[in-house]
Write a structure and sequence with these properties.
The complex is a heterodimer of chains A (about 500) and B (about 450). Chain A has about 500 residues and is α+β, with helices and mostly antiparallel strands. Chain A has two domains: about 1-300, no CATH class; about 340-494, 2-Layer Sandwich (Alpha-Beta Plaits). Chain A contains 22 helices and ten strands. Chain A has helices at about 1-20, 25-30, 35, 40-45, 50-60, 65-70, 70-85, 100-115, 120-125, 125-155, 170-190, 195-200, 200-210, 230, 255-260, 290-300, 340-345, 350-355, 390, 420-425, 430-435, 470-475, and strands at about 215-220, 240, 245, 265-270, 360-365, 375, 410-415, 440-450, 455-460, 485-494. The model of chain A is unreliable at about 275-315 (pLDDT under 50). Chain B is an alpha/beta fold and about 450 residues long. Chain B folds into two domains: about 5-345, NADP-dependent oxidoreductase domain (TIM Barrel), CATH 3.20.20; about 365-435, no CATH class. Chain B contains 16 helices and twelve strands. Chain B has helices at about 70-80, 90-95, 95-105, 130-140, 165-175, 180-185, 200-215, 230-235, 245-255, 275-285, 290-300, 315-320, 330-345, 365-380, 385-395, 420-435, and strands spanning about 10-15, 20, 30, 40, 45, 85, 115-120, 150-155, 190-200, 220-225, 260, 305-310. An eight-stranded parallel barrel of chain B has the order 5-6-7-8-9-10-11-12, surrounded by five helices. In chain B, strand 1 and strand 2 form a beta hairpin. Chain B is globular, with a radius of gyration of 21 Å. The chains are: A alpha+beta (about 500), B alpha/beta (about 450). At the A-B interface, helix 21 of A face helix 15 and helix 16 of B.
Chain lengths: ~500, ~450
Amino acid sequence: MLRKIRIIFAALFYIAVTLLFLGVSWHINLWLGWVAKIQFLPALMALDFGVLAGLIILTLLFGRLYCSIICPLGVMQDIFAWFGRKAKKNRYSYSPEKKWLRYSVLAVFVLCLIIGFAPVTTLLAPYSAYGRIINSLFRPLYDLLINGLAAIESNFDSYLFSEAEIWMRSVTTFVVALLTLGVLGVLAWRNGRTYCNTVCPVGTILSFFARFSLIRIQINEDKCRKCSLCAKNCKAAAIDFKSGTVDLTRCVVCGDCIDKCNDGAISYAVKVKGERLKVKGDEPASPDRRAFLTGAALAVGTAAMAQAKIKVDGGLAEIEDKVAPHRETPLTPPGSVSARNMQRHCTACQLCVSACPNNVLRPSSDPLRFMQPEMSFERGYCRPECTRCSQVCPTGAIQAIQQEDKHFIHIGHAVWLEQNCIPVTNGDHCGACAKHCPEDAIQMVEHTTADGRTVLVPAIDNERCTGCGKCEHLCPARPFSAIYVEGNSTHQIH
Amino acid sequence: MLLTACRNKGERLKVNGERTLESDPAQMTYRINPNTGDKVSLLGFGMMRLPTTATGSARENSDAPIDQEAVNEMVDYALAHGVNYFDTSPVYCQGRSEEATGIALSRHPRNSYFIATKLSNFSEGAWPRKESQTMFERSLEYLRTDYVDYLLLHSIGGGARGKDAFETFNARYMDNGILDWLVEQKRKGRIRNLGFSYHGDIRIFDMLLRWHDEGKYHWDFVQIQLNYLDWHYAKRNNPRNTNASYLYDELAKRGIPGVIMEPLLGGRLAKQPTHILKEMKRADINATPAEWAFRYAGTPEKILTVLSGMTYMEHLKENCCTYSPLRPITAEEDALLMHLADEICDLNAIPCTACNYCMPCPYGLNIPAIFSHYNNMLTENNVPAKRWLNGYNRAVPRERQADHCIGCDHCIPHCPQRIRIPEEMQKIDNLVEQLKQS
């Protein structure tokens, strides 16, 4: 019973989080965005005490249900473990808690959190690790599928699907996601919840509370025949059948042991002090399978269809790809207050990267801001009507802003590079930046070039410039734009 | 569906009563060239939109190789069904049209067809005397012949960058003495008819006809743009253009035969919005919009031939049917078409015929594709934003869309329709912004 309920809830949460990261529809973010906001570390980063208190109370009452239901990385490992058990039955065994490892990892994590050393915290954050896996590895497959459907529907004069650009946002993040998936996959396949009970800082934090949980898995010594089936099926390696004890710091309350026990000796019930628990005989285990869960996993992994290539006319000039300029100060989205605030609060879950409809956000490769989002404008710019990243961010790294606010938040300022500017380099009349600037921050003025020609070039009003990047994106100079946005260390509000 | 196109015209019935698109070659309408006595089919084959082995014609898909087999088949079919005028140019299909045309035609006796080609003026590099002569000689080589039946000064009336139409014309044809050299070639029999194709500044057209009147140069034929939209309403969507009725009358009163281009405005008149199509179908349930347009263009009697840039066999068959024989437009039908032309002008489409002369845009825009999407959306009522934008992204890659126009104006002198392309790009970009923010 516990197991079935757990699987149903886990599947619902898991699918919801996955849909968020796949960027299936903005409506899903509006309806289900809260599943990201109730994740433990993001709530901690956002100092959302309501959520934190709720999760701690949940754990004090029911044990580490969070790890089995809410945490998508935990559920993902359960999926791998399920396959592992299919391959080899009764594969686990009890092992004592590795306290030194758990606590030292937690200590390092807390230390890095305090000093704001992002690479460690982002790497260890479980929900964010899952976000990166979906965003970096599965999102492109999903986009391929959508592009395939769009190619098909275009034969029927239908316009339901919008083609997505599929591109490598960051090689390092991709590699990290791939390694995370690989390592966790193998660990979970072979030994179940090893990661959650040795490395995961959230698992360790929750274990402090879980040991006092009101309702807990317990073994009725009167019924137990010491057959060891429960221990061999405990993916947390938390059941010591010989002594008849369950290590509550590691038990994730999955309920598998209850179903496995042929003697009805294991129950999930209120702890009763002093006397042995009288347990009703549970009905025998039914060989129900997590078809639901597997289905969800398969849906995510559905292989993509070949994307129809866009034809290029021979009468078209070749277009060189834009290359991102080096920015002294990284550009972070409106709402993130400053690059430092972003660095302190972001767990690099990639939800904002997923949500960005303009291909502006991508994970950073800078070691100090490793995998945290930064902006660049080779494929689009920060459109005036869009505030999506600020709406999805669960950690408060990007605070919610309204569309009207964007006009007043100056995340950066445009910089002109004469040596790239088209009127200077080839004499063509241009003015693309001035024409498109949504803030009227650019006007074309006469300028005498080194060779004595008078041409019209952009003059920038930094007071007006918000750093949206439209000028940089639409500048015809390639590969480097003649006008680009340099970040403001703290976003100016005026 | 296509079969019905042949009703009322060159249609023939099969034994079992089904209609067929096969026209009767004996029924093809011919016009006589008063200069040479050439008996020219009213349907002329334009070799500008030749089929490719990929999708689309060489116009939209200029990277793809020309499907020579299909070209041969269509040329064979055309000749077998009475078409005998083939119009090409050294610049069509990225310079591959003449060769493909030569391959296809040279499989037939030289006296069974007329070849028209041009002395093109697209790039200033081809303007000097020697380069111009080479261009003509190469045309003969590609076309596998030692004479051209109809040679045209290509697209006079336009202005090159920084030059007005007169300066351009003088620099291209007069200062280098190339027009006189062509007259000489005509005397030698290497050119049988000498003429010009006109787009653009009306003063050039008037000047060349004045020369004709003064006996300075004799024009054996002139190629003009004529269709039921341009007859009276050329200025409606573009005040810089001239009505076809004026151009035709000027030629007719001098007895100069006219060759017609853009009878369909680059296909625009073949695809009509539903409310206009409905009116057409009410008048003739079986006629296609293309058939109406071809009948209209072929009706004036001083017209020698009507060019159609055909990519697909079905178009060729339908057009053969339309002119086998021509049923001239009646006064009543003429009134209907003028009424429809008025309604079409009200759509305010961008008058682009997708000739691609503006391409390549140095900043990578796909100008004809952007205009084509915009016009297509105009012909549908109340297109939802999602459909407009998704369709736009499918028709034109994002980095080739209107917002990337910098207004350098390189394209302007190239446009035979005299569209102010950068202004239109701005208009389209504004619309796109509006849709995105909605």
